[in-house]
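Running this now, will post back.
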Amino acid sequence: MPKLSSFYVEVTTGEHGREDIPVFAINGFNLPFDDVDGDCHPGSTLKATGNPDSFPHALHLVGPAEGSWDIQQVKITYFPQGETPYSMVFGAATLDDESSLNIWKRRPAPAFDV
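Update: finished.
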């Protein structure tokens, strides 16, 4: 498993937003995002970079301390150390103070026709 240098995420909020900027958790440790643009109000898109510089056994988008947060879509691009970047898209989810969204996916295996 390569070290995850950084990742770029775009989170589109649905009907119920949140006032604060979320944090991400890597391997159980909460960290703030860097280079944040936008917000998590209803219908808004948050664009942010995370710089964990760590081996990701787990990577989560953490839910709000109060209320709920409807996520319409998450687009993420991973920048593993020494490898080319790759991207994933996650669908709708609702987060609260007891939930988080797993946003760690390993690079898909190469596919080819024979």
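The longest strand covers residues 69-80. More later if anyone needs it.
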